[in-house]
Write a structure and sequence with these properties.
Elements: H1 2-5, H2 18-22, E1 30-33, H3 45-53, E2 60-63, H4 72-78, E3 82-86, H5 92-99, E4 104-105, H6 113-118, E5 127-135, E6 141-143, H7 150-156, E7 159-165, E8 211-217, H8 231-249, E9 260-262, H9 266-274, E10 283-286, E11 289-290, H10 292-299, E12 303-308, E13 310-311, H11 315-322, H12 326-329, E14 332-334, H13 337-340, H14 343-349, E15 352-356, E16 359-361, E17 366-367, E18 370-371, E19 375-376, H15 383-389, E20 392-396, E21 400-401, E22 406-407, E23 409-410, E24 425-428, E25 431-434, H16 440-450, H17 454-468, H18 483-491, H19 497-503
Helix pairs in contact: 3-4, 4-5, 8-9, 9-10, 14-15, 16-17
């Protein structure tokens, strides 16, 4: 019954169609929209916005938590609604528009967006469009499967459009912990001292008079499309498990490890799932996205508690989890992404951060975002928040892509998202390079020997040897440093013609 979802009777008069709500959005507005890795995203109003733009063109700046589901970014791009987009996306159509220069994309650390809003460096937000499971009697919004930036969007926006999603279970109520930092420069310490700390409210507190419209929806979240582990991702997981066991033997960690964070995607999901086969127990997650692996670890009896900003699951895992949600609920919390990704909390808890790289170089610099240094993939996301502040900053990648034509280990990355100063461990299916307390030349030896694919190892060693002969603290051949990327750009293959012919 709608009375269970909209508990303030006066708000019933605000129920409108998606088209009517979309009609409130005007050209040039800044819109904050819920959604974090395809979970808890607004689903009806943005589609109506794209439809309206076909006959009534307008453009907006769109802010979200992270990526959206239901092809929302694609539809808004094709309708030419997006003038500017931040801070993260994963849509192929939008990506192409970004790389053509048609949409201005601001790639931003996920912890920073609302800080810029709060300090008036960005904004103000004209409308926040927020998916909710329900609205309380006092007007407070009970989010659905993600928080992301929704809380600050709703609090800081001039007006709010709420999508009440009837497919989202009311069992979600009580799952959320909405803590908003106080203003700088007199900010109080964020009182999150453990993964299971609750510091705020279970709802987003707003003045109900700010609610301009309510739309009723029934569309489920988009399911994740994570592929099952293959031999290479399993090898990466095995290398990491062996490393953690070694750290325990050395007395640096115990079998509960430190709180873990893992980025979105197949490799990171497989690495976490692989921990169920190790000797570890009473694990904790302090992460952004709670994926299938989170609930696999719960079911294996390995995980004690998980803190995140969204829950993004495959179809099969979603049915299992939400079919018996009470079994997990008291071991879960969802937070605003500025808290899940906050440097203060990450450093306090000693988080072990595991994120995915597009490419790494022999000195430990990591490119997470740009193909050949120029073309955006998705964005830096939260990886930088964790890399700079984690107890251990780990980056994982397969050593080869495109059937061996491209090496993920290169002489110099063509774009730097995470410098060598913020990278502790690099892992590929070939091995693990522990780069802690090593000088650049020592790092290069480790990366080449343990992470590079054998088909590229000799070429990397030759580059390093010749660069070293010229001297320097971080030896490079500037005339050759990007030669691999140039070959890739021109021929689709990083190998020299002779090596390519020999391989064929």
């Amino acid at each position: 019954m709608l009375e269970d979802r909209i508990r303030r009777p006066s708000l019933m008069d605000k129920i409108v169609s998606p088209a009517a709500a979309a009609g409130l959005i005007r050209d040039g507005m800044i819109i904050g929209m819920s959604g974090f890795t395809r979970a808890g995203d607004a689903k009806a109003v943005p589609i109506a916005m794209a439809e309206r733009a076909k006959s009534d063109p307008f453009q907006i700046t769109l802010l979200t938590g992270a990526s959206l589901g239901h092809d929302i970014d694609r539809m808004l791009t094709e309708a030419h609604v997006l003038a500017r987009r931040m801070p993260f996306q994963t849509d192929a159509t939008l990506r192409a528009a970004i790389n053509r220069g048609e949409v201005m994309f601001i790639d931003q650390h996920l912890s920073e967006t609302v800080e810029h809003l709060r300090s008036n460096q960005l904004g103000p937000i004209d409308y926040a469009i927020i998916e909710a499971a329900a609205i309380r009697e006092d007007g407070g919004i009970i989010p659905s499967t993600s928080i992301g930036n929704s809380a600050s969007f709703a609090i800081l926006a001039k007006k709010v459009i709420v999508e009440i999603n009837l497919s989202q279970s009311l069992d979600l109520e009580g799952l959320h912990d909405i803590y908003i930092p106080t203003k700088r420069p007199t900010r109080e310490a964020i009182p999150v001292i453990a993964c299971d700390t609750r510091a705020g409210l279970p709802y987003i507190p707003i003045d109900p008079d700010k609610i301009a419209a309510i739309v009723i929806t029934k569309e489920q979240d988009s399911f994740s499309t994570i592929e099952p582990a293959d031999a290479e991702t399993q090898a990466i997981a095995d290398h990491l498990i062996g490393f953690f066991e070694q750290e325990v033997a050395l007395g640096r960690l115990d079998l509960t490890l430190n709180p873990l964070q893992a980025g979105i995607g197949t490799i990171a999901n497989s690495v976490l799932a692989g921990l169920s086969d190790g000797p570890f127990h009473h694990l904790r997650l302090y992460s952004e996205v709670l994926q299938d692996s989170t609930f696999d670890l719960f079911d294996a009896g390995k995980l004690s508690f998980a803190s995140g900003s969204s829950i993004t699951l495959s179809s099969a895992c979603s049915a299992r989890v939400y079919g018996d949600f009470e079994r997990y609920k008291d071991r879960l919390v969802l937070r605003p992404q500025e808290i899940s990704n906050h440097p203060e909390v990450i450093r306090r808890l000693g988080v072990i951060g595991i994120n995915t790289a597009l490419e790494v170089d022999i000195y430990g610099n990591v490119n997470s975002t740009h193909v050949n240094g120029t073309h955006m993939m998705n964005g830096i996301g939260g990886s930088g928040d964790f890399a700079r502040n984690a107890y251990l900053s780990i980056f994982v990648t397969k050593s080869l892509v495109k059937g061996g034509r491209i090496s993920s280990v290169v002489p110099m990355v063509a774009h730097v998202d995470h410098t060598e100063h913020d990278v502790d461990i690099i892992v590929t299916e070939n091995g693990l390079a522990d780069l802690r307390e090593l000088a650049p030349r020592e790092r290069a030896a480790k990366v080449i020997a343990h992470c590079a694919h054998p088909s590229y190892r000799d070429a990397l060693q030759d580059y390093f040897d010749r660069a070293s002969s010229r001297g320097g603290h971080t030896p490079h051949l500037l005339e050759e440093a990007f030669s691999w990327h140039l070959r890739s750009r021109d021929s689709g293959d990083m190998r020299k013609p002779a090596a390519r012919a020999a391989a064929e």
